[in-house]
Amino acid sequence: MKLVFIYGPAAAGKLTIARLVAEQTGYALFHNHLIVDAVAAVFPFGSPEFVRLRKAFWLETMMTAARERRSLIFTFAPEPSVEPDFPGRVRRTVEAAGGEVIFVALTISEAEQERRLLAPDREAFGKLRSVALLRELRADMAVCMGAMPSPVLSIATDEVSAAEAAALIVEQLAL
Question: CA 38, 43, 49, 51 torsion: positive or negative?
């Protein structure tokens, strides 16, 4: 079982690229907004209940997938409401169940990030769409990105298309 853990800042193309990788590999796509949106329907984002349930759902799903030998792709945007050791817990949880975690980092320039942030398709999952809020959060998000494990592969998504990024992931990681 492989868990392809795709992480990067808002609007870096995580979900778009993950969908293409899923199409090419048959891996299940478990993007973070599936759980974020479900838990946020009941508890305010960032509240203790929200943080606890989100983490529990994420980890339980990944552990069960590993035990069942079901490879998957997880998308993740590092931010302050997630405990800094979360990626390490994911790795330990998946490896304990016999799986492997492969970290893939997506990067994007600030100008392109701000341009993409306004795309209408970002409304579908209640994603961040405010450039002003992004600018306020950028420093905190950069710290969170810096705390992530070293990736096996890093892709600048403003330099390649989503299809090219997905092909790189599939080829470089031999998925």
Answer: positive
Q: Is 165 exposed, middle or buried (0-12, 13-18, 19+ CB in 10 A)?
A: buried
Locate all alpha helices (DSSP H) within the chain, ordered by sequence.
Answer: 14-25, 33-40, 48-67, 86-96, 110-117, 131-146, 162-172
Query: CA dihedral in degrees (60, 27, 127, 172; nearest 10)?
Result: 110
Beta carbons of 25 and 42 less than 8 angstroms apart: no
131-149 pLDDT, tens digit per residue, is 666 667 677 777 888 889 9
Q: Is the pLDDT of residue 54 over 80?
A: yes
Rounded distance between C-alpha atoms, residue 141 and residue 8, angstroms: 10
* pTM for the predicted model, two decimal places: 0.89
Q: 71 with 21: CB under 8 angstroms?
A: no
pLDDT per position as a tens digit, 89-133: 999 999 999 999 999 999 999 888 777 676 777 666 666 666 666
CA distances (Å), origin 175, targets 24, 25, 137, 159 = 9, 6, 34, 23
- Report strand pairing: 2-7 vs 153-156: unpaired
